[in-house]
């Protein structure tokens, strides 16, 4: 089996990419490699100061990198709408949207719009952003939308439409798994609708396996300790980002596919095409979650 690396990314000159959560971890590494191959990259970040610092770091590594820092808090629909409007004002087309930003294992809390924080940040904010940028994606000759999910979509995850806000017996591990399952349900449904409409865009998904990033800062104590002790056995952020980069750029990747590490349990290693759970492919759940998500966020997809 050949090993796919960042060296396999084709020339991206002339393309525009938007990467959410690009100030740290997987998002920053994704932005770095897209810029290295010539793309104009919008670093869509909640903290602009951290975004500027990340841009400076990338430019030091990639002289001449074409970067712009865009304020975006995916936990706020008002921020999502403002950012989308600014991005639309700068770009007639967007070739790549990487929905990467997220939180993990947070204590029970809500977004400013009243959504459970993990579902609101990881899923609903990105649904809204994708819808609001859809016309710019459809203006590109071959746009891709990449949802960054997690192997945690297999862990204690289900979509409970009677309690999407997780107000009953909140479990932060289950809530994270739900949000990552929602990422896949959305990506697969979006790709199916794009295909049905004969659109030039596709949607794919990726997961980084178990990577050494800041995302684990809210993990329960035993998990944080295990990450510290086993850090040398985890994917680095650079390797973890390769699954996203392959989904985003590999000419042989197809809509509706999922990429993740090829190692045992899809925990570590370089990216290959992998399979997600049966629940993620349930058409009825995909359609219902799509409708509920659009209703909650107040967006629609004009396909």
From TrEMBL:
InterPro entries reported in the protein's UniProt record: NAD(P)-bd_dom_sf (IPR036291), SDR_fam (IPR002347)
GO molecular function annotation: oxidoreductase activity
Enzyme class: oxidoreductase
Keywords of this entry: Oxidoreductase
Pfam family, one: adh_short
Gene3D superfamilies: NAD(P)-binding Rossmann-like Domain
Superkingdom of origin organism: Bacteria
EC number(s) given by UniProt: 1.-.-.-
UniProt protein name: Oxidoreductase EphD
């Amino acid at each position: 089996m050949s090993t796919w690396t960042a060296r396999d990314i084709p020339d991206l000159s002339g393309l525009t990419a938007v990467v959410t959560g690009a100030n740290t971890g997987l998002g920053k590494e994704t932005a770095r490699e897209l810029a290295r191959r010539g793309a104009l990259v919008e670093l869509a970040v909640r903290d602009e100061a951290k975004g500027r610092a990340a841009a400076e770091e990338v430019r030091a590594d990639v002289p001449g990198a074409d970067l712009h820092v865009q304020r975006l808090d995916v936990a706020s629909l008002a921020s999502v709408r403002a950012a989308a409007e600014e991005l639309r004002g700068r770009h007639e087309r967007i070739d790549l949207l990487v929905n990467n930003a997220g939180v993990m294992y947070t204590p029970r809390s809500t977004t400013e719009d009243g959504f459970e924080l993990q579902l609101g940040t990881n899923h609903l904010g990105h649904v809204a952003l994708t819808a609001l940028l859809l016309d710019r994606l459809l203006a590109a000759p071959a746009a891709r939308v990449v949802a960054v999910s997690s192997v945690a979509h297999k862990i204690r995850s289900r979509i409970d439409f009677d309690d999407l806000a997780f107000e009953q017996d909140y479990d932060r591990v289950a809530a994270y798994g739900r949000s990552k399952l929602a990422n896949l349900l959305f990506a697969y449904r979006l790709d199916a609708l794009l295909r049905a409409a004969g659109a030039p865009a596709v949607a794919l998904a990726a997961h980084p396996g178990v990577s050494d990033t800041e995302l684990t800062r809210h993990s329960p104590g035993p998990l944080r300790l295990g990450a510290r002790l086993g850090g040398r056995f985890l994917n680095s952020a650079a390797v973890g980002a390769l699954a996203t980069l392959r989904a985003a750029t590999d000419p042989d990747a197809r809509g509706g596919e999922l990429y993740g590490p090829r190692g045992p349990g899809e925990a570590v290693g370089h990216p290959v095409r992998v399979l997600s759970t049966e629940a993620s492919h349930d058409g009825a759940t995909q359609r219902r979650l799509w409708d509920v998500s659009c209703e909650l966020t107040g967006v629609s997809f004009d396909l």
